[in-house]
Design a protein that fits this description.
Elements (H helix, E strand, L loop, with lengths): L1 E4 L8 H11 L6 E4 L12 H13 L3 E5 L7 H11 L5 E4 L2 H7 L4 E3 L8 H10 L1 E5 L6 H10 L5 E14 L4 H5 L18 E4 L5 E6 L2 E9 L13 E4 L6 H12 L5 H8 L7 E2 L16
Parallel strand pairs: 1-2, 1-11, 2-3, 3-4, 4-5, 5-6, 6-7, 7-11, 10-12
Antiparallel strand pairs: 7-10, 8-9, 9-10
Helix pairs in contact: 8-9
Length: 295
């Protein structure tokens, strides 16, 4: 199995992003996804910056994929989408069906925000040009196995294997609302929360994370201990960037994939690096917030 580094879901300062991707060039990941998928108002990196970073990572031997926004809201968003689609070198991760249509038969990756739950949808995506698809977060291992048993598209399968799960998007900005600001004058307050804002229940349990227009899980989804159950099903494992310890997380996944460490042992070593408790429920057909494998 290959390892991928997913698109950055948070709003970080420019220097932080430059340093992060300079480090990523040396990490044992095969694929790196770049681009703004959450909010077009985030401007520390412009399109030219993403393309320059893509060139740097490609020179370091990485397969680079440019990710599109999951929620297109304006003509300027469409303009950016068209520019990414027409970049002429790098694959695109299409995160909505508008992006799929725009690719017009060119190779692309079908992102996790496209509702792909049956072989018929996979076939439609393959006929549109998809070379790989990313399994929806809520899909279980058994659902994936059943789908692939009927699938004839030949697409590679990628699974979100680590990070706060991107669950939903809204036209409203939750971070701006938290600061009593309108979305169009948000003052870019989400840059103050490099890992989103954790939302707790009345009982004090971390439940969700608010990340601008995106709602995430508060718990960290980790399938490191479940690697053996992916054999024969999964081609690529996705690690979602976090502010701290992403390089160490990548190293633990790589060690487990290469047989240098047992998955359960690697998961045990991962536990102290987690910013919030882990969860793995969706993969096992349970409630997403649940943790079924003891670390």
């Amino acid at each position: 199995m290959k390892l991928s580094l997913g698109p950055l879901l948070y709003y970080w300062p420019r220097d932080t992003m430059l340093d992060f991707y300079a480090q990523a060039a040396r990490w044992p990941v095969d694929i790196v996804y770049l681009g703004e998928t959450v909010c077009s108002r985030r401007h520390e990196f412009r399109t030219d910056d993403w393309l320059k970073t893509a060139e740097m990572l490609a020179d370091a031997g990485k397969e680079v994929v440019l990710s599109t926004q999951a929620l297109i809201e304006s003509e300027s968003d469409l303009k950016m989408l068209r520019r990414l689609a027409d970049n002429g070198r790098f694959l695109i991760e299409a995160n909505d069906m508008g992006a799929v249509g725009l690719m017009a038969g060119r190779p692309f990756v079908a992102g996790p925000h496209i509702n792909t739950y049956n072989p018929q949808t996979l076939q439609i995506l393959a006929e549109a040009g998809a070379a790989r698809w990313v399994m929806p977060l809520e899909m279980s291992r058994d659902m994936l196995a059943e789908l692939l048993a009927q699938d004839t598209s030949g697409l590679e399968t990628e699974v979100f294997a680590y990070g706060r799960m991107p669950l939903a998007f809204s036209a409203r900005c939750f971070t701006a609302r938290r600061h009593n600001l309108p979305k169009d004058n948000c003052q870019f307050r989400c840059i103050e929360n490099p890992y989103g804002m954790t939302l707790k229940t009345r009982e004090g349990q971390s439940f969700l994370a608010l990340n601008g227009t995106q709602t995430q899980s508060a718990s960290v989804y980790s399938l490191l201990a479940a690697l053996e159950s992916m054999s024969g099903l999964v081609d690529v494992l996705r690690i979602s960037p976090q502010p701290d310890n992403t390089g160490e997380v990548v190293a633990l996944f790589r060690a487990a994939l290469d047989g240098a460490s047992a998955p359960q042992q690697a998961a045990h070593e991962l536990a102290p690096l987690l910013p919030e408790p882990p969860c793995d429920g969706y993969w096992h057909g349970r409630a997403g917030i649940e943790q079924t494998v003891a670390y």
